[in-house]
Amino acid sequence: FSRHFNFIEHVKSSSISPPGIMPTIRRSKLKSDLLPTRRATNSRENATFLRKQSTLRTLLILVIVALLFSIIGTKRNDHHHETTLQQQQPVSGVVAPRTSYSNSRTAYSKFQYNADPGHLNHDENATTGRQQQSQSENATSGHERRQSQSCPFRKYAPQRHYHLNSSHSFLRDATYVFGTKPFILRGDGPDPVKKICIDSSSWETITPSDRHKFSDGQNLSIMSFREYPSPYYKTQNTPRLRRETITPLVDLFGASSLDDMFLSVIYVGDSQCRWKETEEQRTTFRVSELTAPPAVKTLVLILDENLNTVAQKDLLVDFDGTSKWGNKAGPRKPERSARQLDDPRFFFHEGEIWVLYRNGKAFGYEDQVHNKVHFEKKGDGDWEVYIKSNETVRVRPGRNMAMISDSGSLRTVFYIDPLIVVPLDEEVNKGKGPARGTPTSHVHGTNGMMIPLATTGEFLGIGHFHRPSGRDTSDFARHGHHYTHVFYTIEKKNSSEYRLKRISKEFVFPSMSLEGDADIIQFASGLELLGDDLTGRLLLSYGVNDCEGMAMWLNMSVVQGMLQDVEEGKEVVNYMMPEGQNYSTA
After folding, report:
1. What is the model's pTM?
2. In terms of pLDDT, which residue wins out, 367 or 62?
3. How far apart are CA 577 and CA 558, in angstroms?
4. If I label 351, which of 31, 96, 294, 396 is the partner at 20 to 30 A Cα–Cα?
5. Which residues, other chains included, contact 164 with Cβ-Cβ below 8 Å and sequence gap of 6+?
6. Residue 137 Cα distances to 80, 97, 130, angstroms
7. Given a cut of 70, is residue 431 above it in pLDDT?
8. Cα separation of 125 and 52, whole Å?
């Protein structure tokens, strides 16, 4: 190429005409008269051209190098920008932050552990965790990023608030535990309420862009990864969660890092983020314009020590091709796929993680189902979480039941009022409930697992009321509304019988939409204790308006102070009375 280029430049600059158009000159004259002059001219022109060519080549090399540095710099900036956005989880305690929450196409399909590594222990496992963080960031930095999503606390229309001083007859004329209307239970610390964030960008495009997601999920359950979260498990000399059952997570994060992290499950489906608002209210409160869920799924979240989401996966069902799952006749075809697992809650039994759920289409709307949860490594830095169809246990009829794992046996609080605890060695059939006509307060259990209290030998749970007690669709909600909660404990009377031991007054959680009030739907579905039952901390996880997932911490000293003794032989209904009437004078 250089030789051809030299020739063209030479022809342009030479006074000699190129072959084919050369004037007629005697060959001898050309050789004798013109050849010395031509040689001298060519020598000068070639020297000039060589200098120009060298300069051009140098400039070309510099341009190429500059372009390469520009491309590399752009990739680095993109990666830095993406990692920064992933780290910008919303800070709890702020009512409406516009925090950017963006992730790559593979975000939450691989671990995105972006927490400050300074909290990690300086041991081999901690080093592994930091290396895996770096590997994960590198693995996702080059992928196309999804739509940026924010994760603020939502604001709701006035009819979506509880209105604690309301004059509604179903509240005014109701009975309450100890004759006391609900109070607002506030969390400990500078950030009393934390919103748990999900990423819906793989199944939802938010339009207009100023609107909220269709749903931020509902009724979440949060549990710790610790082997021994409280002294109870030390006294039993049995880890609540054996590390070999979550090997893929241990490999990716490191065992010591997991001790500071949490596992959560949350349902995303036909929410009540949108319910009976006017068009003006939907615009004002940024309600999604969608009228049906863009997807129905159950998500498993990995949370860091500050309850920020660092990983997200669909909870799948593994069908082996031979087992029946639900009421449908015959086995399902072999596959691993997502299914609707409504009202999911985690519990632990025999060192493994289990999940409670309902699937109305498959099992009926009154039956509760539970399965062991499995984790599987999928390639470098990736994983799946699933349940097996052939391990399904069905409890019928029943819902909102809390599990008791004690001394190798599994039982459930089938009813709170009257208290009925039944073993789950086999399916629970009809006939286990209270006899027809038995007085009841309509209190229901909500948390997936009763928390053992080592000091007193009790088990701690949380229950809820909604008023009125029916579930008819209304202008307030699709089903129940005006929820309140109570703490309660049960204790063993003998090897197979339990009794109600203590109960608290009713409370609500603080609304992050309206100061000094609560939300019309608040549903607590998770309890977790870290530390001892006198000075430790209790983590409550709950849903708001079937639209958002929240969490708060309480000191156990506060919880213990709320619980009041129940007389032997008494049930919750015996403590229900109109406002202002004291039990001691009833």
Report:
1. 0.76
2. 367
3. 24
4. 396
5. 181, 182, 184, 508, 516, 517, 518
6. 10, 26, 11
7. no
8. 61
Q: How far is CA 390 from CA 323, 393, 483, 486, in A?
A: 6, 9, 36, 36
For the CA atoms of 423, 429, 434, 435, what is the dihedral angle to 10 degrees? -140
Look at strands 576-578 and 175-177 and give their pairing: antiparallel
Residue 101 scores a pLDDT above 80: no
Nearest Cα to Cα of residue 340 among 356, 360, 324, 322 = 360
Six token digits for residue 147: 């739509």
Main-chain dihedrals φ then ψ at residue 279, nearest 5 degrees:
-60, -40
Percent of the chain scoring above 70 in pLDDT: 74
- When mean pLDDT is compared across 84-93, 158-167, 194-203, the lowest value belongs to 84-93
Least Cα distance to 84 among 109, 111, 108, 104 occurs for 104
Phi, psi of 246 (to 5 degrees): -130, 40
Distance CA 143, CA 78 (A): 10
Q: 388 and 371 in contact (C-beta within 8 Å)? A: yes
Phi, psi of 9 (to 5 degrees): -65, -35
Between β-strands 444-445 and 402-406, what pairing exists: parallel, antiparallel or unpaired?
unpaired
DSSP code of 236? T
Does the structure show a pLDDT above 50 at 50? yes
Taking residue 62's Cβ as centre, other Cβ atoms within 10 Å add up to: 10
HSE on the CB side for 18, CA within 13 Å?
Answer: 7
For residue 90, the one-letter residue type is P
- Within 10 angstroms of residue 448's Cβ, the number of other Cβ atoms is 27
Average pLDDT value for residue range 508-516: 97
* Selection from 526, 523, 450, 518 nearest residue 488 by Cα: 450
For residues 423 and 410, what is the distance between their CA atoms, to the nearest angstrom? 6
DSSP codes, 190-215: S---EEEP---TTT---SSTTSPPS-
Tell me whether residue 560 is exposed, middle or buried, using C-beta atoms within 10 angstroms of its C-beta: 0 to 12, 13 to 18, 19 or more: buried
Of residues 335, 334, 343, 386, the one with CA closest to residue 218: 343
